[in-house]
Amino acid sequence: MTTSEKVVELLNQAALISSENKLTVLKQVQELIINKDPSLLDNFLDEIIAFQTDKSMEVRKFVIGFIEEACKRDNELLLKLIANLNMLLRDESVNVVKKTILALTQLYKVALQWLVRCRAVSEMQEACWALLCQMKDEVLALLDSDNDGVRTHAVKFTEALVVTLSPRTADSHTPRHQEADLSLDRVPRDHPYIHYDALCAEGRAALEQLLKFMVHPAISSINLTAALGSLATIARQRPMFMSEVIQAYETLHANLPPTLAKSQVSSVRKNLKLHLLTVLRHPSSAAFHSQISTLLLDLGTPPQDIARCTPAPRDQRKRAARHDTDSTGKKIKIEPPLVEDDEDKDLEAAPPSAPQSSSAPATQSAIDLTAQFLLPLLAPDNVANLVLISMVYLPDVMPASFQATYTPVESAGTDAQIKHLARLMATQMTAAGIGPGVVQCKSVREEELAREGPEAESSEVKVDSVSIRRKLSAVPLGQAISVLGAARSQSPDEEGGKGTGATVKRLPEPILPPTQTKPSGAGGRKKVFRLADVIQPLSDAQAEKLTHNAINRILHSEKAIARTGMSHVRVKLLARLVSQLEGRLLGEVLSFVLEDLRGRAELAFSLLYQEYSRYLALGPQGALESYDHCLLTLLSGLQEKPDQRDGLFTKLVLEAPLITESALDVIRRYCEDESRVYLGMTTLKELIIKRPSRQFQYLHVLLDLSSHENDKVRTHALNFIKRMYERDQLRDYIEKFALNYMQLLVHPNPPSLLFGADKDTEVASPWTEETVRQCLYLYLALLPLSHRLVHELASVYTEAIADIKRTVLRVIEQPIRGMGMSSPELLLLVENCPKGAETLVTRCLHILTDKVPPSPELVERVRDLYHKRVPDVRFLIPVITGLDKKEVIQALPKLIKLNPIVVKEVFNRLLGTQHNEGSSSVSPLTPGELLIALHNIDSSKCDMKSIIKATNLCFSERNVYSSEVLAVVMQQLMEQSPLPMLLMRTVIQSLTMYPRLGGFVMNILSRLILKQVWKYPKVWEGFVKCCQRTKPQSFSVLLQLPPPQLSAVFQRCPELQQPLLSHVHSFTPHQVETPLPNVAELAFLLQQAGVTLGTEETQQVFMALKQLVDTQPLQHCRLWGKVLGTRGSYLVAEVEFREGEDEDGNKEEEEEEEGDGSEARVNHEDGVGQEMMDPLPNSSDRHPPVVPREQNGSGTNKLSYFVCSKPGRPWVHLPPVTPAQITVARQVHHLLTGRLDAPVVTYPPFPGNEANFLRAQIARISAGTHVSPLGFYQFGEKEEEDTAQEGIEENPDFEGIPVSQLSKSLSTWVHHKQHILPQGRCVWVNLTQKPEEDLEEEGEEGEEEEKEEEPDEPEVGPPLLTPLSEDAEVNGTPPWTVRVSSSLIPQFAIAVLRSILWPGAYAISTGRKFENFYIGWGQKFEGEGYTPLVPPPPKHEQPRGPEITASFDPTVDEEQVLQAVLDSHRAAQEEPEELEAEEEEEEGEDD
Length: 1487
Prior knowledge:
Elements: H1 3-16, H2 19-36, H3 41-49, H4 57-73, H5 78-89, H6 94-117, H7 123-141, H8 148-164, H9 196-214, H10 221-237, H11 242-254, H12 262-280, H13 289-298, H14 303-309, H15 313-329, H16 366-374, H17 380-391, H18 400-405, H19 415-431, H20 436-452, H21 454-465, H22 492-498, H23 540-556, H24 558-564, H25 567-580, H26 586-595, H27 601-617, H28 625-639, H29 648-655, H30 661-672, H31 677-690, H32 695-704, H33 711-725, H34 728-743, H35 769-782, H36 790-799, H37 802-811, H38 813-819, H39 824-831, H40 838-848, H41 856-869, H42 885-895, H43 900-911, H44 927-935, H45 944-956, H46 963-975, H47 983-993, H48 998-1010, H49 1017-1029, H50 1035-1038, H51 1043-1052, H52 1057-1065, H53 1069-1072, H54 1079-1088, H55 1095-1111, E1 1114-1123, E2 1130-1137, H56 1143-1169, E3 1200-1204, E4 1212-1213, H57 1219-1227, H58 1250-1265, E5 1267-1269, E6 1273-1275, E7 1288-1290, H59 1299-1302, E8 1309-1311, H60 1332-1341, E9 1376-1380, E10 1391-1395, E11 1401-1406, E12 1409-1416, H61 1452-1486
Parallel strand pairs: 1-12
Antiparallel strand pairs: 1-2, 2-3, 3-4, 5-8, 6-7, 9-10, 10-11, 11-12
Helix pairs in contact: 1-2, 2-4, 4-5, 4-6, 5-6, 5-7, 6-7, 6-8, 8-9, 8-10, 9-10, 10-12, 11-19, 12-13, 16-19, 16-20, 25-27, 26-28, 27-28, 28-29, 28-30, 29-31, 30-31, 31-32, 31-33, 33-35, 34-35, 35-37, 38-40, 39-41, 44-45, 44-46, 46-47, 46-48, 47-49
């Protein structure tokens, strides 16, 4: 298979396979026809170029590479392929464009070198060069592209262009692979077509464009890095541009782009430093060493690195000498042209002019001039002032670029640094277009232009006109050829020869895929096919019919075309046809679309866009009728569809290029349709957001709907407006609309604008509630979102008429509640209440505090408003629950004089009856305190009638004023001095409401007698009325009155005399003298002393004592006190049984006797058992004798005590106390628990349970704290020594001691209870004196050892009625404190005595009465911390020894052995005795 056949096969494969494999095949084709057999290039060029339209980006890039290689191989192919490359430069793919720029970078040099070699340039070559120049300009324009990659490739192209269009010098550093590349020094100056100076100017222009690109403030980091590298390359390869490059680097260093991030700034500075070092190594940089070194030092380069990169001076001199030799002794060689003509043989390339050295510029730049101007001005004072002034403009946050670029200046103050600073400032000033350098350069340029005049312009035109010399031929008009540098103008000769007709060259045409065979003709030219040559014109009717049928066929071929996948082509075709036919068939097409709008939506949008494009094409004179008709037809057709859930309507509106007024009306109708209101408003909202140019127009429609008469439409509109209000750009417009609508309320009559009129004129109809609400709907919806609008409402309210004001007060509830009382603007409105808006502010306060209590901030603002600006008490009503108790009481006289409905609301707030359940409102006054405050209102500030009405309102709240509350109120009112005028009225009303308070009322009446109620006429009158209404219960009270007052009662109510007398005659002997104490009086006295059980508990205690009196045969009963416990407390009643009725005491004595007998029986039984046992050893220890307890009715057991844990529970009689219990109780501290049967765990052990311990503490407290005024008791006349300490009686002649004396000296108080001796008894008993039976038993046993015991010394305590002044102090603290209950009203005060030794013990006295009471924990004050007794040390163990050591019993064998041993010993001892006896006998016989 030949190469040609193989290429054909590969091309056929490439046309049928996928992109990846296609690229591989095409690369094989390229290898065959370019490298292996280049002769096939012409044969298959068209087939390969046809792939430039392939969908694959990689295939198109391959075609570009193929074009580049083909043109390098055969330069003539540029004539054919340059146009295709031009097409690919405009490709939609960025990667294809970048590939094209890379190819063009090489092909530009190839084309220029090709033209230089040709001495005669053909028309096709001229056209090719013109198109190439045009492409060059387009690539330079791509420096402004939106893509970073394209801009980077354009920078590289510009670099190559500058290097190519500038001469190469001896100092040029050219890489080896670029030594063969063309440069401007190889272009002959006498070339017939290429002009040397024009190309040089183009190179400089490209460089200037690159420099401007690099200093652009919005340049990206990637492009900036590429530009830095390109400039460094240009400086090294073309030293004549060294000055421009260095200045560009200085400018960049002084003005880094502000868009760079911190990391990008660091990267740019690093690249700048590297390129500066590279430039520094070049010999031509010697004149710029100081500038480069300063820049490098600023960039942080060490000085040694700078010195290492700086070339030696001798190298510079050698290069300069070599440069001079080369410039004078050598000529630049130019490669000979490929085709030589006879007329070109004698032409030689003229030597290029030596380029001007960049180290010695002819003229100074603007930066140099400005730097020279600034240098002498940079004195220390000026620099310091400049720094201080600049500090004002420093940003709050350090910019990233400065933070990344700042380095400490090591050489600050040196000449080099000052020069560098001057150049930095000059660079920034020049970039900003200011400074003497800019002005001087500008003036020099203007002078040169003015001096040269028209000649300079004509010379410039001539230079440009001869930049490319070409022959003109007759070509079709309408095509243009771009010229290097600038547009080409004809020379005078050409104008004279060619006349006025301007002719231009035809540009090369691209190679397109062939669609038919090439016709052979003369000269090988194609014959152009013209449709007009083969058709006949049609009549208008025929054309109309043909058009109509064609459109119909296309319309109804929908399904057939859909199967082919070309529906989008059909849609575009239909849209364009309808537009070109100027809408004649638009109606039919729209009808067809509306039949299935969802399925034909694409066609609908195409028609819409085509009509809009047609409108735009007509320019300012274009009309919107056709577009408006199309859009309106589609929207109206959608409106007739019942189901819109797919969002087609919204999509059509949002994607329409323009919303006309008619379309907006359709959208409004959608919004007004209840079934589609949400869809319409959603669409309108999207329009507002996504069409910012006309968003206010669409927003106005939505705002108009906010006052719609339909509730559903209006509600949806307000909800959508709230969402729009969150956007800052719409907020002001919405507020302005809402305020304008609200401002309509200031008109006397409603404006016609509210009724749909275009003009704002008033109508004759009056304002109605509906029209007022219409003006407020939007405003009230915005008020919770923007609280500052509330001030506008206040200003409108003050100017509105009364009907409008009433409506406003009704409709603001919900918005004001939404604002909340914490709103600063609402608080500001309350604080600055405008004149005339007091009712509005009050209404707002009522709304805010209706469900929740007022906040402290709101209360403070209202308080200030009331006291400083508007002293209207109605302001205080909403926040009355937030005021202090004192403020409420001060405002009560004014409040109760208001309208009864208002007074009712005030009381509802104070009593907490207006809030819903769960409200956390706390009134400053309790219900009882409110009623008491009403009684205490001064009649001079408020009439009595208003006060009575106010109290009646309180009594009407039966749920609040329960019997317990009224009892407390009556108790506190009764204690006031003077007594309130309405006291008895309240007592009578309370008794009427709650008859069960009868007993309590009787107690009140009794206490009023003590307060001499007859001194208050109004109260006394009520007292008598109450007694009259409560008879016969009040008889006991009347009997307590003094005789004169009782007579006064009979005078007022004679009908009470006979019933009271009958009541007295019916008394039994026991009723005449009852033991029940007056608990109410005791509670009253204790309360003055600062001690109280509480009103309710006092009443309960009274009933409990009554129960005790009724169930026990008592002669006397007194409330002793209350002892507190950890789990419960004890109420203690001190009683004395009637004579012979102490049953419990007798039972206890019998139990004790029985106990003694049982012990005796036990001992007897034990004695019987001892007959068969060894007698027990007698103990030598003798226990101390037991101290006997005192009998009932004497000593510590003189009185009995009952306790109960709670009133209503059974009373328990405490057992008598023993001396042992009192002795141990003195040694321990123990808190009671509240259970009488609880054990008392102490050390020493307490002999008994909690009942016994409580009884012992009661005895101790009574003995130490029961005192009385001096003289109340006296000793009896008949008394014996044994009973002297108990023989006291009341003194009938006691007249009482003044309270002032009782409160000054403790000598006026005495003890009237016997002192408990250390023995635990009140009367000492001699334990050494034994009974007679004990003496007889001891006499029989003690004959052998008789010891005499010395009698104990009797214990003696302080006698009765000892003054308190003789009581011993406790660690320097007096045991008693005495005071007066009140110093304000001493005439009603009582003396209060408090015990320090027993905290909780009180004694009170007034006149002839006194009371002792205890309420505490039952603990004595020791004066120091309590330390328990230390247990005794444990006994020693018995010492061990053999006599007490246990051993095992011996066995029988061991016993026998032991017995034998013992017998042998015994026998051995008996033998000597027998011998001695015998010897004695023998001696006796001898005698």
